[in-house]
Amino acid sequence: MSDMRRSYVSVVVIWVLVLAALYVFQQYFS
Amino acid sequence: MHPVDWTIIAIYLVWIVWDGIRLTKRSHELEGYFLGGRSLPWWAVGLSVMATQLSAITMIGTTGQGYYDGMRFLQFYYALPIAMIVLSVTLVPFFHNARVYTAYEYLETRFDAKTRAFTSFLFLMSRSMSLGVVISAPAVVLSVAMGVSVTTAVLMTAIPTAVYTMFGGVQAVAWTDVKQMVLIVGGLIAAVVVLIFQLPPDISLGSALHVAGSAGRLQTFDFTFDITNQYTFWSGTIAALFLFLSYFGTDQSQVQRYLTTPDVDQARSSLLMSAYWKIPLQALVLLVGVLMFLFYLYTPGPMLFDGRHDRELREGPRASEYLALEQRYAAAAEARRAAGVALAQAEDAGESARVASEGATFKAREAEVRVVRNQALAFVRSATGDTTYNDVNYVFPTFITTRMPVGLVGLLFAAIFAAAMSTIAGELSALSTSSVIDLYRRFIRPVATDRHFLMVSRVATAFWALVACVVAVQAANLGSLIEVVNRFGTYFYGSILGVFLLAIWFKRATANGAFVGLLAGMGSVAWLIAYTKIAYLWHNLIAAVVVIVVAMAVSAVDPFARKAE
Predicted ipTM? Predict the structure, then answer.
């Protein structure tokens, strides 16, 4: 896997984790 | 404001101009002035892209939105990381390998001069308008804090920025952006810390956040599918994707920045920095708004944060109505405070039945406060004739000037200046580049020395700064600024994206087809705005589709294309 392709995969993984964290944050404090 | 704060602001303004000009290298050559000699590192370009995006409107308008509306605006940015990946794979290598100065230059290679000139013209019009709005945001802050006119405040922001952009070119813009970005993030973190420490001592941060959640201020996901609502998960992930593709992929202020890197991979890496950090950064900005909501919940503040009409209303013929509204607001805010304390105590005690009952009471009290506030807004509009009156953009400036310690007031104002100047500089540089490369050098004077083009570029920068200042003075009277800026662009963004998609992926598209498609796309947005309630984020997607469909239909019957075959 090229360096750029690895970067794209890590962007998607971090994106999913950030959205999941925001959802948990919303549910926990609501 | 304390003299220490004034000193901090003055030092910042002088230092940033001096530093911008000092760091400039090779700005006597065209490529050095417009593209930094294609030698800037990816991390500096990445920070510069983020700084241009994070304007003073974000600092003032978005914190105000966080205060009144909570964090749901965050959904607007959910598609941004995906847009950055798509652009890194598609448009970035095209532009970089084409060795162009502007995005629109590429359209002449693929289509013709009129398509290039028209898209460049659209960029110049929409960007100069939105730049005016961007300048007016810190002007609003300054006019509140200093008691000066909006015009004076506009000039204080725009002149230093125009000076270092004129003389330093894109290198001055990028390197000052890096430092300004550090100042902005530092200022936001300082604001969060101060706000947390100003919560009442008997209320923990956790229980306070539960109270904010009960008031709907922590909602970051709305899965309702409603195309008339701007801020839902679907608008943010589908419709906003096309806005970001268009903004980061075809707007010269963004394209110019990643053309300054030495190679394609560094250009891609600079964009991916936004992909990682934009959502957390925007969450931090909105969190400042939510924490201000909690602060003013437990320490009731003014009924309206914009006090420009206060004296006129107190002394006018309807003074008794205004005072009655203020008394009702004070009573409603006090009832909400008591309910907020009771709810926080119930949260701390961990009694779920009590939390439910106190939560219901708090929501009812919060609704009452909203009703009185909305009545107050309507009253001010009708009593003063100021039909666009809204105090959203005044919440953060009011908090800074009345509740922040000496020193931090100056730091926060410097951060707001930094946010404004980083955006203004990037836009001015892009406006100047497009004016000179796409119009002046292409149609008026194709051959001249670099010295001549640099002189014209500096004049163009000064001209666009002047235009933006005039627009800024008018825009200061508009409502929530962040939406205004986005709406300016939406008239054109989707259509221009459609033309670039045609250029890259539709080999059969002809120049005439692309031009007619572009006009049809813009016409479709005008129709959507006039006759439907579809949220503006969706206009980009619809316009891009209209451009492609119409362009391909025209291309199929284009007589000039047949002759060429």
Answer: 0.95
